[in-house]
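Consider today's protein:

***
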Amino acid sequence: MGRVMMMVSRGLRTVPKGWRDESPTFDEDMPDISELSKDKQEIVAYETVSEGTPISPNFPNTQQGKLDLVAWLAEHEPILGEPINGETWAGILFGKGGGAALMDIHTKRIEMSTPPPEEEN
């Protein structure tokens, strides 16, 4: 039997401290954080298949906040019904694949999606 892979699309968004998104939000509708200092920003995980829906609470935009976010996701947010460990969540959100990964629907194994190498001129 051939492999059947499902696209897993999750992303990280930076939001103003205390901001809550209760509904799907397109990237262009997200609040502008360009003039906010890092201590006034938080990070939140989103599903990004459609317009995007938050899948986690907000966490401080710090190294510890990133660790707390992946720990929270590992405990509370399965992908396609399967629990996902913190290391895999970190790869999905902070790896080179930009939030995209593939899940083998038979083995439940997740493979990180990486962008193709840039061509040299």
